Amino acid sequence: xxxxxxxxxxxxxxxxxxxxxxxxxxxxxxxxxxxxxxxxxxxxxxxxxxxxxxxxxxxxxxxxxxxxxxxxxxxxxxxxxxxxxxxxxxxxxxxxxxxxxxxxxxxxxxxxxxxxxxxxxxxxxxxxxxxxxxxxxxxxxxxxxxxxxxxxxxxxxxxxxxxxxxxxxxxxxxxxxxxxxxxxxxxxxxxxxxxxxxxxxxxxxxxxxxxxxxxxxxxxxxxxxxxxxxxxxxxxxxxxxxxxxxxxxxxxxxxxxxxxxxxxxxxxxxxxxxxxxxxxxxxxxxxxxxxxxxxxxxxxxxxxxxxxxxxxxxxxxxxxxxxxxxxxxxxxxxxxxxxxxxxxxxxxxxxxxxxxxxxxxxxxxxxxxxxxxxxxxxxxxxxxxxxxxxxxxxxxxxxxxxxxxxxxxxxxxxxxxxxxxxxxxxxxxxxxxxxxxxxxxxxxxxxxxxxxxxxxxxxxxxxxxxxxxxxxxxxxxxxxxxxxxxxxxxxxxxxxxxxxxxxxxxxxxxxxxxxxxxxxxxxxxxxxxxxxxxxxxxxxxxxxxxxxxxxxxxxxxxxxxxxxxxxxxxxxxxxxxx
Length: 578
Hints:
By secondary structure, the chain is α/β, with parallel strands linked by helices.
């Protein structure tokens, strides 16, 4: 049935603890549509007029420039490919002494290409930030074309604190706010002014992108500042506090099933150890479930190729209780115990407090759960990294967290709490305002701004289902016209931001620019695997029977990459989005 909007499926649910059968979304098509405000004027490039003189000559409130130097072609590489000549500017904004007597500033670097395309790109970084990553505008997966390589002027920042201040920055009230959203708001006008000084004109078009926490930065700015024309949102942790708490909740469920007393190395500190939870759901057992998912779902897109493209249909077709053998004796890698099935179902449901309150979103089932990145997030980061953010950044008041003993029923209200020191709650500073009903994005839509979102279906920390549900709420808030503003590209098999059993190398920035500046919405975007010799870096988890350059179209939701019925299964030309 043809429609002028995204179909709104029934609410996602899981039957617990017996199965993992997710409700199937209602089918529908997403028409091409066009921007309600029409395409914005295309950017016009300019030559770089000054570089080294910016160190002494550029002036902006609360800003210091530490250096400005010419970088020769090839001094910076994206993957193995050299980036053209550009100007590297390093500096800081709002240097101050924090309430904890530590020195704080919003550190940044900007890279200004000699041959500029007239566009500005804000590079949102991931995790707890704390480091100024090279401002190359690199995208998720194993990209060969970042924003800098495409001719954008790019900024990257540490979001207001250094790694040496992690996790202490979470207890410093202003540093919390800078990490949440204020660093982006402060850096944006400065960056545009610096571009104007370097080129003799400001940017014609501005874009903001990132993956994980970088995707969250993009969604928060879209709701708060609306200073950009295009938003490239990867695996957005737009409900990062809830996702982190769900990790702790999951760790407490895995622990009774793990090998008693087992430990493993801390992922960030090789001299420290953490409880080893991986025995709760071993590699062999995860591969068993992945194979069962493939047996039920691989052919739903018309091709048995080791990829489940029909994600929504699969959630209904696969049932953990009946499609995976239940152990009658000892676990041997060929079955799951009843207790395991109950815990796996609960973890994929997103977790609930003892009072029944949902902690986070459900996760879609995908064979990518067999991947190492999935296990790292569920079993290691859940006890090593997530407690830091939960305790020091999202809770009021901040304090230490024991991931396996913390009272999560008491913890959840701390995310919404404020006091005389922390006047904005963790949820408020981290999440986009109006998240449940994003009507404020109508202003962006009406002026011609666009948003492209991508998310690995096998992401273990931020759920692709949570992103899909946000899109459906957006569609409702925009009166069924979300497709004229936002497009969502699920990436089957992909782990968090990249990797996994996936064709994870793609360029979504160019299609976003084409949509913003030419009015052409993206629908099918080429994606390739990163096999041996790939200049963007090899993905070591690719199955041996895949071509090293397997390709697929990434399809805008709700369309699915479907086999045409003939031709090589390694070639995207033999698949269409429908």
